[in-house]
Amino acid sequence: MIEFDADMFAMGADWQGAFDELSDLCDVVYLSRTEGVSTTRLKCCVLQLTKGLRMVG
């Protein structure tokens, strides 16, 4: 968290309590599952967009 200067760490509620030790460094939030939303797919989209931006710049 320090390396990224993060204010918040978010993780799915199925990981509840697993990252509480980070609470000294940032807010730790556990999110409920949203039907029809895949975090794996979202991460892939973000990576693709990031790669595209790097090519342009």
What does this 3D model show about the protein?
The mean pLDDT is 87. 32% of the residues lie in helices and 18% in strands. The protein has 57 residues and is α+β, with helices and mostly antiparallel strands. Strands 1-2 form a two-stranded parallel ribbon. The longest helix has 18 residues. The chain is flat and about 35 Å long.
Tags for this model:
single chain; alpha+beta; two-stranded parallel ribbon
Largest sheet: 2 strands, parallel
Span of the ends, CA to CA: 27 Å
Q: Estimate the helix proportion, in percent.
A: 25-40%
> What is the 3D shape?
flat
Q: Looking at the chains present, what oligomeric state does this protein adopt? A: single chain
Number of strands: 2
Which series of helices and strands comes N to C? EEH
Strand line-up in the sheet with most strands: 1-2
Task: Explain briefly what this protein structure is.
The protein has 57 residues and is an alpha+beta fold. The protein is built from one helix and two strands.
Strand-helix topology:
Elements: E1 8-12, E2 27-31, H1 39-56
Parallel strand pairs: 1-2
